[in-house]
Amino acid sequence: MTYSDDVLGRARVKDTAKLEEFYNELDKHETVALWRVANKIEPWFPQPVSVPMLWRYRDLRPLVLESLDLVKADDAGRRVVALVNPERKDIAAAVGLLYTGLQVMGPGESMTAHRHMAAALRFVVEGQGAWTVVDGQKLKVGPGDFAITPNHAWHEHGNEGTDGPVIWQDGLDIPLVNALDAGFYEVHPNIYQERTGVVNSSLLTHGAGQLRPYGFEDSWTKPYSPLFAYPWEETYAALRNAAKASAGSPYDGIILEYSNPRTGGSVMPTMSAHMQLLQPGQHTQAHRHTGSVIYNVAKGEGYSVIAGQRFDWQQGDVFCVPSWAWHEHANLSSTDDACLFSFNDFPVMRSLTFWREEPYLDNDGYQPTN
User: Fold this and answer.
1) pLDDT digits (tens, 9 = 90+) for 154-200
2) Which helix (H) or strand (E) holds 103?
């Protein structure tokens, strides 16, 4: 297929002196001739502003820890170092319309409760004693655990450990919410929530995997998962078991989606999350898709090739893949697996029927082998 704009069906008007006068008149009325901008606002294929990025944990960790002594939790609300794409600084996005950052909480620290229209998720990088309260439910989480904070749900966080700080990765759809002019934010009227039920009640009720609480479907009508926390141990065991039965995806290795146990769908309406396992020495094939992805290296070391650039990663590093960018992953170890946590905006792409995916093919139309 040709991508030249000098074809029938694309805007190809040649400017003249008369047209320039016409454009000037339109400009006085805050209007524009569509043919002057049509090819830009309706590109042949996605033209993401975001660029591929890798943020090294070994570089950011000292800065994240330094913020403990520089800013009080009560003053910051959330003590977070945000990871910002150099081409998305205007909206504080890491890639596309997704935000991410590294939040730190010192021993015994407790953040105040609030809620906002943006949905949020957490992936614990290091530290013991982390907890979050979501709509009154207290959840305890540790390294490798994944937790969700659905949009407009009251939530607060803390670290009840005594050995050291907790660092987790936040992921939110703030840029999407703001792009739609739908942002709201509230501080809890009592500063802290009243806690109900037992600790990890959603996990105790809905965390049995293939076993679903009978009759619960009649009482849960919310559009997000009733399970708020997904432990690392069970996730990694599920990946290892899946690897015994299948080679998985040629593009992502063994990849599992954190799901809503009630519907089998994504955990929240605007963001989904995955954990994938790369076998020792595995190098996946390249593909691309609509939708942006932010990764956190949960285990191992390797590299990814994104839009022709190689990014070497190790545990704790964060990297991103812009929408429609070719990408592939490789595990550098010949003896141990590597695991990548990721979250994305795929539910938005699918619900709006924007989803598209394709494999990388060579000039002869074949899938290259690595």
Assistant:
1) 999 999 999 999 999 999 999 999 999 999 999 999 999 989 888 88
2) strand 99-105
User: 248-254, long-range: CB within 8 Å, 24+ apart, which pairs?
Assistant: 248/276, 248/277, 249/284, 250/284, 250/285, 250/367, 251/284, 251/285, 251/286, 251/287, 251/328, 251/359, 252/276, 252/284, 252/329, 253/277, 253/278, 253/279, 253/282, 253/284, 253/329, 254/278, 254/279
pLDDT digit string (tens) for 189-215? Answer: 999 998 988 888 888 888 777 777 776
pLDDT tens per residue, range 98-112: 999 999 999 999 999
- Quick one: CA dihedral 55, 328, 172, 142, positive or negative? negative
Kindly report the pTM of this predicted structure.
0.94
Same domain, 238 and 200: yes
For residues 29 and 101, state if they share a domain: no
CATH number at residue 223: 2.60.120.10
Among candidate residues 195, 186, 220, 190, the one with its CA nearest the CA of residue 205: 220
Distance, first Cα to last Cα, the chain: 27
DSSP-assigned states of every residue in 28-88: HTT---HHHHHHHHS-SS---S---EEE-HHHHHHHHHHHHHHS-HHHHSS-EEE---TT-
List, in sequence order, every residue forming a beta bridge with 256; answer none if it has no partner.
275
Count Cβ atoms below 10 Å from residue 161 Cβ, excluding itself.
19
Task: Count other Cβ atoms within 10 Å, centred on residue 29.
Answer: 7
Q: In angstroms, rounded to a whole number, what is the distance separating the alpha carbons of residues 261 and 216?
A: 11
Residue 238: which domain range? 53-359
249-291 pLDDT tens trace: 999 999 999 999 988 999 999 999 999 999 999 999 999 999 9
Q: Give φ, ψ of 123 to 5 degrees.
A: -130, 115
Asked if residue 111 and residue 14 are part of one domain, the reply reads no
